[in-house]
Every structure is written in C-alpha cells, then in structure tokens.
Automatic annotation (TrEMBL):
<protein>
    <recommendedName>
        <fullName>Protein kinase domain-containing protein</fullName>
    </recommendedName>
</protein>
<dbReference type="InterPro" id="IPR011009">
    <property type="entry name" value="Kinase-like_dom_sf"/>
</dbReference>
C-alpha cells in the first residue's frame, strides 16, 4: 500500500520557508502535503523498526541524533559541536 507522507505539522511551522523553494510545486501540493509516495514507511522510526536496523535503545539514540539534522531550515539544525555531545556519538 502506498502512503503519502503528511507534512502538515512541518508546513505550519516552516510554510513560508518551504514555499520559497524553486521546486516547491514539484514536491508539494498547494495544501503543503508532499507528492512523495513511500511504501508503508511513514517516518524514520518506522523505517528503522521495519528493517530491524537497531535494537530499541540504539534506535532511540540514533533517531535523537539524526532527526535534528533533517530539519528543513539550516539555521534550525544543530551545529557539529552540539552533535558531538549526543549519546549516539559518545556511546
């Protein structure tokens, strides 16, 4: 079953930033939902669980490390120095 990734919460906080992109219309609907189709994967947690990449503790540390790096606005992303303090790196 194909699902469309819902970006409504993402769009509410970064709507003007995303709409400035030259490819906005290519990847998003006017309502702010992505046009990307994924097979049964809704988020990073689901993907890692589905493919049994990590045990539960490792998965949580990894998600806490990676998720902030995936923020759309570069100014909202952590610095390298901040990332080096995360459990995933220190473990």
């Amino acid at each position: 079953m194909l699902q469309k990734f819902e970006a409504s919460s993402l769009m509410s906080s970064t709507s003007s930033y995303i709409r400035q992109g030259k490819n906005f219309e290519r990847y998003f609907t006017p309502e702010g939902r992505t046009n990307l189709k994924m097979r049964g994967i809704a988020d990073l947690d689901s993907a890692l669980t589905r493919y049994s990449v990590f045990d539960d503790v490792e998965k949580q540390c990894f998600v806490e490390f990676v998720r902030p790096m995936l923020r759309l606005k570069p100014s909202d992303r952590p610095t390298a120095a901040e990332l080096l303090k995360r459990k995933w790196i220190k473990a």
